[in-house]
Amino acid sequence: MSPSNREYSQFLIIDDDPGIAKFLVTYLRQRGHTCHALTDGFQTASWLSEHDCEVAIVDLRMPKVDGISLISFMREMNPSLPIVVFTGVGYDEEQMHAALRAGANGYVSKNLPIEQLYCVLARVLATCQQRKRSVPSAQPVLAGAA
User: Fold this and answer.
1) Are the CB atoms for 130 and 138 separated by under 8 Å?
2) Which of 113, 106, 110 is nearest to 85 (CA)?
3) What is the average pLDDT across 22-27?
4) Residue 61 has what DSSP assignment?
């Protein structure tokens, strides 16, 4: 399964854990995509103003910036950017709903296999591409229950 109709997609990962960020970058690059990681959420605005990406993957719990606030900020900056939460919080219904209200398009627990995240990325990207073609919006994609 490919996250878009093209051969590759451009991803931005925002996670304060350098090990997780590196793992995701490596995984997505092995799948043929371009990928950049930020381990400091405060870098997001300047990065997005200078670069393009098709999907952002955001951690909820970071020491310097709250993931929910970051999602809201990103949504204001780019209303059409697909945002997927990838969090170690697990399936926390309150956090999930807060992320979705802030503008996230999907929610995945870090406790699930990486292939699950990839499937959610593919579905979110496909849904967002359909929206751009004026297809009625679909529900957010959730994969937090283990």
Assistant:
1) yes
2) 106
3) 94
4) B
CA count, 13 A, side-chain hemisphere, 62: 27
- 21, 90, 101, 133 from 136: Cα distances, Å: 33, 29, 19, 9
φ, ψ for residue 55, nearest 5 deg: -145, 135
pLDDT tens track for 40-65: 999 999 999 999 899 999 999 898 88
Q: Which domains does the chain have, with CATH numbers?
A: 10-143 (3.40.50.2300)
Cα 1 from chain centre: 17
Using DSSP, how many helices (H) and how many strands (E) does the chain show?
A: 5, 6
Give the span between the Cα atoms of 135 and 133, in whole angstroms. 6
